[in-house]
């Protein structure tokens, strides 16, 4: 029912990345962490501010071994022009993925049928292609990348410490919990 | 496809709230903002820390005119005992809703079939019963209520300012954007 | 149509038993007699008195080579807390099985759809996993474990004496009947 | 799923009762308590002992305002002969209902398809025709009417005291429980 | 459409025969002629007179190498008692077959759904299990075994004289007809 | 399942009767008793002997207020010629019904698909059009009209004496049985 | 859609031919030309005149290597009597085929459902069993065998001269046409 | 099954008739006799000879009050050119109907699917639009209009003399038969 | 099957037109001629040259009372940017319609499923919304607007002169043909 | 959805070509370029002018290695006559294909169901049988072969220069475009 803990569906798409057109697919997501960020449409209002926000945290994502993917239902041609004409978007060093076939927006459950556009959705995906967190907003409400970074770090921590869980508002370096029968009913 | 901008489905459930058993339904959510927070199970590990986190922000939620609902697939009987025995949960002054019929976990798409429990999901719902934001995690990764407050405030702002949108990482009091054709391609 | 003389369906569940969480399944029921006792919900009214009644006859059940399983739709986490907080339930030395997936309540036909809880049902099962007696009550009416012991003994007697049947209100040690054509129409 | 708390299905059947053939139906069960006792077949082994057991408690049933119905898949013709030829069955002053159409055995879920006979099933039914308790055995294991009387009394008690429940092994005259939130988690 | 010249369907049933309970099946009908006689119910009105009629002709049937089977939807238990208590039925030296599963009454098309009983049907079956004659009456109208004997003899005659046919009201020893083209249009 | 006690299905057919072609239908059967006798084919072997047998008892049928109908799948044209050319058939004063559409052979369940002809079937039908007795033979075995007369008389007797039944081999004038509970198990 | 140039469907039927009953089938039609003539019913009005007409041309059919088959839905028994009693039909030296199963009338599309009889249909069939001409009339309108002979001859001519076609009203011996592109648009 | 005695199906088509394009429909066929003659294709081999044959008998058809319709799957445009370029077709004073939609060839069952052309079919239709005779040939075999005239006359005769039938090879002015029961089996 | 002479399906879309965002629908096409021109994607190779070609003929289209619609599966946001950044596209004074929902590309049969883009298709539509001409190319082959103008003029001419048709390569002002039977077969 | 870039469906048809009847099929189209031109009907108004237009450009088509096919739903017989009688059509040296089965008009989506005729459709097909351009008109609007030649040339150019595209109104010899990322957003 939920996408959490399911595999990313197979897909193929064209992206604009560092001055080139490249193919992105479910296969290219394997082996490292991914953060997939859907936006409604190129050239619009909130989207550049969100891309800029992501760009400013890109070093952190890279340090955490994660790639960032921006996705809209526009073409990669539009993404090139967007990158060239928007100062905010021009800061993006990660792939801007075109999804004119609506393959990705449907697979992640963020497609708006009556508009042909995406909702603002963010997904953290592990190196096996399994979705660990999701977050979707009405398009008038933008996200905060700081929180995405926190989720990515928590997801990475519990992936490498399978007997621990991250408590509320956990941030990197804070104490975690190790579930045991003794704790049941005691917290 | 997405739950965003859809109506909460009709439901009826028993909750433990301020020392009483009360009925909670879709009808009781109408007329004010709601924050629905699913947790896996009473008496377990992260859940009390998350309830405590919510309790510590409850004044803020109340000031914003929003009610908080904690939901698990346990009964309201268990919720009473949990409230009495857990110092963290005992701080909760909002309803602890029992969902042993799985009506709510299925309606919000957070049911785990093989466990009979909920995923960690948070939903901000407007006074018309329309879902505006959703956030779902693998159960080992807890949430941060600060971010939920930020989303609630943004949702409330755009609801009362229909011609504006909140940019990335917007916080109450910051500038918003007023979409217009002149901005297209210019940000 | 009836569950009598059918196999217990395959299942897997978590139970609280003697201070530990253990997995219980149809496989773990094979090789000895089982008495499965469904209760509506942890922390409620009649249930502790019934568990206490079972606990007081547990020595008898054990002498007869039978295990007792208490089942509710609560989690094993709730069962641990119930065992710790209820003096009556605390006497139980047999597994308290959690059925939050409703697998067992559905398989034994005691699920109440509109409540997500179990009816008061008791089942005597032989070492091959075949159900020999069943008894189900409206939840306001509790059972009497003495009668369950009598049924278990009768079921065991006829299992080991295939050419005999136990007459009305038979108790261990009393005379049985050996069906033969000569008795037809003569009793 | 369960027959508990469902209405008896409409039926019509011929019975032998006090030297006459009479029609029995769901309608004739309304307005008083009923105890329906299925037996495998006339002229067989355990059945006369069980009818005798019922006959010996008939005064108690009558005092409690309940009628007893014995049902087999035989005809009412066979029941007359059985009554005349069996000393045990001859004691029955209640209707011996013939069910050669298998209408009743199927409606109460006690039909054995491969034999065309009934399982040993006992049902306590309230004056509205609602089934309150059921008990079904493999045919080699007979019942104890004492326990049926106890269940009838408990069912009658909670019917007339809607805010009380009968605890384990409750017998007429003993204390009952009045469920309240204060008892939750305290017994 | 008709049962004439079709195979008896596979069946298994319990019968009372010469003081014993025996299994009767389609297999036990193979290798000799069979006369299957359905009756509505044991202990009733016409049935004993018809069984007596059959019993008085049993020597003839045996001489013709045919077995007689009486079938009702009662159990073999009832048949034993009937045999013991009815002077008329007590003369029967052939199997009294119980059909409480309604397998035989349905297979021979004589089942009365609303009563669960058989119509008065008589079937002559050859040693290959093929039905050669059938006769079915409303239950108020009894049969005459003399006519059944006549049919059996005619069926046996044409079985052993494949080029002849028995004319109207043929009785054993009378002339038959040998069909040939010369007779067409000449009789 | 059985045709006994069902209504004759609506039909229309042409018959040769007393030198004329007349229409026969289910309507023309209402108001008096009918004896419907199917034969395989005009101009063949047994059929004339059976028609002659019927003709010789026709006075008896008429006295009993019954009409006789001979039916084959031939046309009424063939029946005229048969009547003219066969001395035996020429004795028939009752309708010879043509059924080339196979309407009647199918309605009475006596149609032989692979031959397009009828089985030898005899049916006694009451004045309401309800079938009371049926008899069907393999075509090599002819019937005896004496027995048909006996059945007709018995059917008429019980129709006018609804509280009596005709015992085995009953013939007009003999004693009948009046079913009463006192007789049950006593004959 | 049309039967022209389709294979005769497989069939088996009994015919009266030269004083014998013989089996006729699709196989017996292979290897020579066939003329199949359907008639409504034996013993009727036009049919004998049509059979006589066919009989008078039989020498011509035989010379052309063709067999004639008369078919009605009567039996072969009726056909024998018809042949014996009708002076016109008695002239027939070709098979009179009985079709009481309606196999042939349905296969050639000449069956009248509401009468169970054939329409007047004539079919010329080649030695491979392929239908080359068909002709069907309302039953009040008889055929002219002269025209059937003309069609047979034309069919045989074009079969043996595959590059020629017979023009309007062609009779044996007259000129034919050899289709060639030069004739297109020129005749 | 057969088209004989069925109504012509509704249709609309364009025809070339006496130098004009006219619409022809089932409605235009009502009120007078029609002779519908299908031909494979304009400009081909036999077709002009058949049209010429029809043209030479057109006075006879008109005297009998019948219209002649030539039909092919060509367009009415092709029919105009055919009429102008073929001396034989140019003699036609009756409508040449175009059926490029295949409506008529399918309705009369003469369509050749693999060629898109018609078989040589002739139909005589009465003033109520009911088909009385049909005749269909393999396309290499042409028809003889003399026979069509004979059929039309016979159809008209029996239409106006409902108690008579035309015997074999009947021609206008010859004796007919009046069916009566006295003739059955006598011709 | 073809879209020619069918109605444009209902649709609603956003377009960039003369510096504004406007809604375009099937309704806005009614009352004047429309030329709908699909292009694969904004910012690509041939598309600007084709838009420029259309822009250069826009005066002619306007003089003919026709509106031009450019359609791609991009958003109207992209179209604004395209118009601002491309000198060729900047010449367009007609609506640039966004079709991100793929409603129009599917309705006009030009959608490429595997790319989410349009084929190069041009449609001339009359003031009733009926499609009169269509033209679709593989995307590597561009169109020539001169030919589109010629088609529009021809469509307009025959719309206002219903008895005339435009011959091959007709251009405005040239002679047309008035179809009449006299011309059939004469051109 | 579109026919563009799909394979021509398998077909077989007869054509008139250079005084002969020849078979044309999908196989005969392989290995060279084809131009398929559908016309409504032989002998009509615009069609000859369009064939003449094609004939006048035939040398160009041949030089480009392309064959031209004219298709109507008429027969090849009509096409021969058309060629002989129309001065315009008589100029055609390419095959005139008959499609009376409607196989081709349906496969290319140009069939008019209610008329049985083709729409004016032109298709350019490459040597692999793949459709590269299509153009369909209402029948009152004729085409211009000059534009078809232009499309054929463009299709051939891009087939042999896979990295180039032909811009708007490209004519043989003019400059083409080589798509590259550098051009995106720059034209």
From TrEMBL, chains A, B, C, D, E, F, G, H, I, J:
Enzyme Commission numbers on file: 1.11.1.26
InterPro entries: AhpC (IPR017559), AhpC/TSA (IPR000866), Peroxiredoxin (IPR050217), Peroxiredoxin_AhpC-typ (IPR024706), Peroxiredoxin_C (IPR019479), Thioredoxin-like_sf (IPR036249), Thioredoxin_domain (IPR013766)
Any GO CC annotation of this UniProt entry: cytosol
UniProt superkingdom: Bacteria
First-listed, main subcellular location of the protein, grouped into a coarse class: cytoplasm
Disulfide bond as UniProt keyword: yes
Enzyme class: oxidoreductase
Catalytic activity reported: a hydroperoxide + NADH + H(+) = an alcohol + NAD(+) + H2O
A GO molecular function held by the record: thioredoxin peroxidase activity
Localisation per UniProt entry: Cytoplasm
PROSITE patterns registered for this protein in UniProt: THIOREDOXIN_2 (PS51352)
Active site: 47 (cysteine sulfenic acid (-soh) intermediate)
SUPFAM superfamilies: Thioredoxin-like
Pfam (any one): 1-cysPrx_C
Domain Thioredoxin intervals: 2-157
Family: Belongs to the peroxiredoxin family. AhpC/Prx1 subfamily.
Role of this protein: Thiol-specific peroxidase that catalyzes the reduction of hydrogen peroxide and organic hydroperoxides to water and alcohols, respectively. Plays a role in cell protection against oxidative stress by detoxifying peroxides.
Oligomer and partners: Homodimer; disulfide-linked, upon oxidation. 5 homodimers assemble to form a ring-like decamer.
Name of the protein this chain belongs to: Alkyl hydroperoxide reductase C
């Amino acid at each position: 029912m939920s996408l959490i803990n399911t595999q990313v569906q197979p897909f193929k798409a064209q992206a604009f990345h560092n001055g080139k057109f490249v193919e992105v697919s479910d296969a290219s997501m394997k082996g490292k962490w991914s953060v997939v960020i859907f936006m409604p449409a190129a050239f619009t209002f909130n989207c550049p501010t969100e891309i800029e926000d992501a760009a400013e945290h890109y070093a952190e994502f890279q340090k955490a071994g994660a790639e960032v993917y921006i996705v809209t239902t526009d073409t990669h041609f539009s993404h090139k022009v967007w990158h060239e004409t928007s100062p905010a978007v021009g800061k993006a060093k990660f792939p801007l993925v075109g999804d004119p076939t609506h393959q990705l927006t449907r697979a992640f459950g963020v497609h708006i049928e009556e508009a042909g556009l995406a909702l603002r959705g963010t997904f953290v995906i592990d190196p096996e292609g399994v979705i660990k967190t999701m977050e979707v907003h009405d398009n008038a409400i933008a996200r905060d990348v700081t929180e995405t970074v926190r989720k990515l770090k928590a997801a990475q921590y519990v992936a490498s410490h399978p007997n621990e869980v991250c408590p509320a508002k956990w941030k990197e370096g804070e104490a975690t919990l190790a579930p045991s029968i003794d704790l049941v009913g005691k917290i």
